[in-house]
């Protein structure tokens, strides 16, 4: 049986070849864009180990099962563990990650992924429910960023952020806010003077005071498969000890 015969069949073959070639080119462009994003747009800056000797990671269930003892031996000093999200989600690995971090001797903080479209007080209660009576060495963190969030009026999002922070402050915690440069001005306006954990891939993280700096989304640390976020503390080891002993937790 002849599947292709005549001028129309030849044209169909040409069209099919053109389509396949177009798909191949598109796939190549997408692969190149992904490579460029990972290699350049999010490539980590040089973080001077003498200036910033205290290093940490932040983790959630997305990182899977980890050996945090190995991470500690690899030079990790602290860890922020995801505890909750929105008004009712608890990270399923928070408890086991907390136990592992405690066994490894890491200084521990917990963070909550903030949802713009959810009441701030309910989110604060959800975070406190997730953490329970566990001891935290570091102040609780509200992760405030536009990514993975529904768009709402900025004033409403900021009011809900302030409500959550106020509730946690009244519960005895002094809040840290994690954000990126895109959302920093919103955070600054809603919570002036709040400790900042900034995500930035620039050599100078931000033209503002910060306490923690997340500088790499694709870090490699012993005991953790795949990529992990890398962070540093703003000061020296002496500054770190003062920070831990400051009584602000």
Short description:
This protein is of the alpha/beta class. It has helices at residues 6-41, 68-73, 94-104, 120-131, 154-170, 181-190, 237-244; strands spanning 55-59, 78-85, 89-90, 107-113, 141-143, 176-180, 195-199, 212-219, 228-233. The chain is built from seven helices and nine strands, in the order αβαββαβαβαβαβββα.
Description of the structure:
- By secondary structure, the chain is of the alpha/beta class.
- It has 2 domains: 1-41; 47-244, Glycosidases (TIM Barrel), CATH 3.20.20.
- It contains 7 helices and 9 strands, in the order αβαββαβαβαβαβββα.
- The chain has an 8-stranded mixed beta barrel with strand order 1-2-4-5-6-7-8-9.
- β4 (107-113), α4 (120-131) and β5 (141-143) form a beta-alpha-beta unit.
- The termini are far apart.
- The model is unreliable at 31-40 (pLDDT under 50).
Looking at this protein, list some descriptive labels.
8-stranded mixed barrel, TIM Barrel, 9 strands, 249 residues, single chain, alpha/beta, 2 domains, 7 helices, globular
